[in-house]
Every structure is written in C-alpha cells, then in structure tokens.
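hey so i finally got around to running the thing on that chain from the lab meeting. sorry it took forever, my laptop kept dying and i had to restart like 3 times. anyway pasting the input first so we r on the same page abt which one it is
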Amino acid sequence: MTTKPTTREPRPSGAPPARPRVFAMPFAKVYPLYVAKAEKKGRTKAEVDEVIAWLTGYAGEALERAVAAEVDLETFFARAPRMNPLAERITGVVCGVRVEEVADPLMQKIRYLDKLVDELARGKKMASILRS
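ok and heres what got predicted. didnt touch it at all, straight out
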C-alpha cells in the first residue's frame, strides 16, 4: 500500500499541539452564520444576540463593536465582558462532541455558543436555552 505524500512538516518532538484554526476565525464571519441558522428556523437576530449576551456579556453596541472590529474568536472570548457562570450547565453534543467534555477552555466556550444557537434553531424556549 502506498501513502500520499504530505505537504505538512512534521512537528518537532515535544512541540505543543497546533492551535485549532477556528480560534483565528473572525467572529464577524461566524456571527452571520449563527443569525442565518436561527432565521432559517423562524427565530430572530435579536434572539441570537440575547443568547450571545447571556453567555458572554456582549450586548447591544458592545456586540456590534466586536463584530465591526473583526476580532478573532480567541480575542472575542478573551475580551468578553462577563462569561456567564451558568455556562457550565450547557451540556449535550454539538459537532459530535460532548460540550461538557471539551478539554480546551476556549474550544469549550466556542462549543457552548454553538450549542446555544443549535438549541435556539431547534425551537427550544428561551428560558430553557438560558438555563433559567
């Protein structure tokens, strides 16, 4: 059996694992996808904004500034005004991965937001989504 040649250089032994590319993705590219997903299922941009505000503390103009600044997801979450302490109540599977078992804290925050938007798009009541 032959193997395909790879174009990647092997990582030196002992080197830290590569950071996922999603961390460098601009929030401004992801945000309209969240809105489109929700609107496709009959939900609103305002509801997406409410979910984001609940999780991160970005609300109103602060959220608009974060989108306009085109910060990457890593910066978006690092500068979040206030991560909701109830976020640890977010459980379930998104993209085939249990969000409560994600080891990397940043990836877990990204998955939390993905899960909340998924729940919104699936028609869950806002009170349930916001763990109230």
